[in-house]
Backbone:
């Protein structure tokens, strides 16, 4: 490669075009929405309430939520047809999550002269390679819509089969300081 063909790409996020950032934001928001529907599905399968399902699922990885949802439907489904349908829906969610992860965890840059946006793929197998790939903003928008659609399809299944988490019946308790010092003070007060 001659020195004159060497390109220094601009990685400053603030210089990425607004339409690209908007498309990437759609992917991120759609991914979060779809993940929340999987959490809701788990809550419905466990027959727990709105607060409890958040407590159970919030720290779960997407992979763990997928495994838990598949296990629960296998334990509770009335037929193999239902299990197959859920497996198809969760497969679609997994494909959507993979696309979201690729897009959100990639590095992006702009060509300094053309302004074109590139996603940079790095490989480190024996040697470090960086390969810029031209970004198709309409394709990113389509992927965001597909990610959202995967969640809506699962939500439709939840609605069709009335697998919503229960409404919270008992009130939430006042938040309690659970640090060791506070526990000791409460224990001492109860001992008096």
Residues:
């Amino acid at each position: 490669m001659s020195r004159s063909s060497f390109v220094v790409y601009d990685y400053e996020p603030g210089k990425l075009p607004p339409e690209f950032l908007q498309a990437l934001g759609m992917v991120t928001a759609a991914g979060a929405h779809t993940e929340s529907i999987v959490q809701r599905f788990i809550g419905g399968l466990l027959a727990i309430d709105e607060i409890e399902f958040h407590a159970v699922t919030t720290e779960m990885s997407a992979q763990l939520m997928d495994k838990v949802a598949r296990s629960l439907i296998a334990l509770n489904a009335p037929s193999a047809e239902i299990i197959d349908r859920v497996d198809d829906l969760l497969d679609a969610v997994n494909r959507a999550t993979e696309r979201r992860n690729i897009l959100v965890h990639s590095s992006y840059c702009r060509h300094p002269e053309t302004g074109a946006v590139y996603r940079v793929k790095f490989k480190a197998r024996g040697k470090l390679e960086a390969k810029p790939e031209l970004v198709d903003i309409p394709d990113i928008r389509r992927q965001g819509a597909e990610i959202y659609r995967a969640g809506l399809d699962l939500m439709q299944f939840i609605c069709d089969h009335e697998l919503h988490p229960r409404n919270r019946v008992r009130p939430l308790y006042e938040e309690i300081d659970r640090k060791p010092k506070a526990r000791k003070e409460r224990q001492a007060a109860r001992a008096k």
